[in-house]
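PROTEIN DESIGN WORKSHEET
SECTION A - STRUCTURE
LENGTH: 382
TOKENS:
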């Protein structure tokens, strides 16, 4: 139906804009947050001059991301003397595109009823009728399975990039990326199994809905309070999956120049770097969906707020939708900033420590958490 097409096209445009804007803003956050932590000023040179005046808009360095993008778009595309042309060309897209697709199954709000949004425009309200839509791009029951399916594809692009470049440093970076992603993706899967046991579903919207209640009357029923140990393990594994410091061994500049994309320049290199920042945002969205209640706020429902003591605050549908979208974006920004904070806090692992940490430390903890969760679910549910 045309109504469905309009809504899902709007969802697609919204998701794409959110990811692209987040990736741009996070490049600024990384620079500025690092500067604050090191007691420096940080990025403040790029500016936009108001035409016919001497007024320069610096805006605390926000234009640096735009300057970087223009530089990569206009820079000459250098290529190795000997390389596999097809694999070399397609590798950045194999890394970049699946990261965008993962966001398509993550719910960024509750239920949207267009007729209530456009209640002041009778023609539009009548056109949409009684239709309602979950606020996510792909309305799939097995959203969590889709995330792990698409989430495993970027490693193929990283290994293709390293192999096709015909550079030993790139190849070493590709081997590191492959073994690291496989190791920590297993950890992520095992931590999520505990949530699946508790919620009894792999539908992300259903998981978020079950986190909308309260525990003991005062504690939000978020996954981080239900599975606190799993939340810590998942976040660590997610950062390692994204190759963020202190897990940035595939791109260790002091050892491998730039890792698997050493031989890339211009916008091809930009796709690798852009994918990394988009993945920060996507992993933040996934973490808050699984462990921080998604777009939920404590005591909030589709009708408004219901506080303890019987006090209620009724809200219109458009106000609830707006609050949910804003809450989701704020949580995403805070989680993304936390990941960047960790980068400038901890030193880099050695590579043997990196893999040993996954297989000898985190894997046993994940298995123990899964066994304890299974026993608790069995005992509580009989």
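SECTION B - SEQUENCE
RESIDUE ASSIGNMENT:
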């Amino acid at each position: 139906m045309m109504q469905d097409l309009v809504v899902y096209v709007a969802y697609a445009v919204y998701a794409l804009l959110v990811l692209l804007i987040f990736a741009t803003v996070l490049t600024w956050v990384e620079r500025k947050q690092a500067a604050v932590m090191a007691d420096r000023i940080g990025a403040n040179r790029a500016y936009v001059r108001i035409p016919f005046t001497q007024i320069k808009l610096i805006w605390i360095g926000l234009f640096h991301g735009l300057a970087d993008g223009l530089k990569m778009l206009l820079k000459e595309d250098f290529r190795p003397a000997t390389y596999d042309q097809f694999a070399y060309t397609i590798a950045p897209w194999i890394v970049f595109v699946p990261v965008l697709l993962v966001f398509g199954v993550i719910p960024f709000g509750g239920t949207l009823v267009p007729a209530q949004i456009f209640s002041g425009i009778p023609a539009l309200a009548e056109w949409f009728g009684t239709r309602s839509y979950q606020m996510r791009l792909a309305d799939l029951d097995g959203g969590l399975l889709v995330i792990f399916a698409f989430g495993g594809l970027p490693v193929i692009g990283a290994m293709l990039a390293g192999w096709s470049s015909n550079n030993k440093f790139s190849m070493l970076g590709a081997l590191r990326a492959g073994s690291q992603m496989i190791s920590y993706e297993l950890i992520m899967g095992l931590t999520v199994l505990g949530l699946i046991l508790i919620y009894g579903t792999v539908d992300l919207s259903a998981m978020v809905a079950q986190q909308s209640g309260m525990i003991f009357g005062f504690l939000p029923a978020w996954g981080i309070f239900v599975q606190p140990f799993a939340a810590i393990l998942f976040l660590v594994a997610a950062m390692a999956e994204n190759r963020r410091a202190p897990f940035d061994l595939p791109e260790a500049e002091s050892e491998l120049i730039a890792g698997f994309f050493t031989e890339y320049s211009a916008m091809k290199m930009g796709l690798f770097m852009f994918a990394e920042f988009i993945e920060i945002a996507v992993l933040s969205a996934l973490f808050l969906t699984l462990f921080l209640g998604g777009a939920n706020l404590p005591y909030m429902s589709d009708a408004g707020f219901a506080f303890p003591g019987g006090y209620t605050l009724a809200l219109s549908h458009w106000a609830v939708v707006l609050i949910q979208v804003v809450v989701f974006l704020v949580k995403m920004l805070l989680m993304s900033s936390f990941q960047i904070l960790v980068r400038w806090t901890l030193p880099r692992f050695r590579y043997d420590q990196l893999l040993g940490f996954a297989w000898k430390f985190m894997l046993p903890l994940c298995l123990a958490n899964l066994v304890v969760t299974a026993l608790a679910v069995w005992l509580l549910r009989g």
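SECTION C - NOTES
The chain has a mean pLDDT of 85.
The CA atoms of residues 133 and 198 lie 26 Å apart.
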